[in-house]
Design brief:
Helix content is about 35%, strand content about 15%. By secondary structure, it is of the alpha+beta class.
């Protein structure tokens, strides 16, 4: 059981890993060894995620989420299978933690009377300094 926060957790059996050949670093080994990891997590059928977290996860995942609700993460940054596996799992957990964070709701506030006065004073000062830069009018 992998704990995300006090409301959400996932079972390790819900994570499926496939190892495929990777492009990129690996030298001559790249054509012989399947070092890239394709991690699949069926978020739609996961028991340990709250509905809110799942909705935010769908928005965060974007194209990495299939229509069936399966999250697919590709990891081929490193040369070894173990490091790619750890990288894919860390990216999955990072996405889940980000989805578990409930965003703060912005409450509209009104500017104070003092802040309005400060703004108008600064506008007046700026206007005065700019008007003094002008060349004198023709009638003067």
């Amino acid at each position: 059981m992998i704990r995300i926060d006090h409301h959400n957790s996932i079972d390790e059996s819900q994570i499926d890993e496939n190892f495929v050949r990777a492009s990129g670093p690996g030298g001559q080994n790249v054509n012989k060894v399947s070092s890239a990891v394709q991690l699949r997590f069926d978020a739609a059928r996961a028991d340990g995620l709250t509905r809110d977290t799942l909705e935010r996860l769908v928005g965060l995942a974007g194209r990495r989420m299939t229509r069936d609700g399966v999250l697919i993460i590709q990891a081929n940054r490193f040369r070894t299978q173990e490091r790619n596996r750890a990288d894919a799992l860390e990216r999955l957990l990072g996405l889940l933690r980000q989805a578990a964070d409930r965003p703060l709701i912005r409450r509209a506030t009104r500017p104070t009377l003092a802040s309005k006065a400060r703004r108008l004073d600064s506008k007046r000062v700026r206007s005065t300094s700019k008007s003094l830069r002008r060349s004198p009018a023709a009638d003067e």
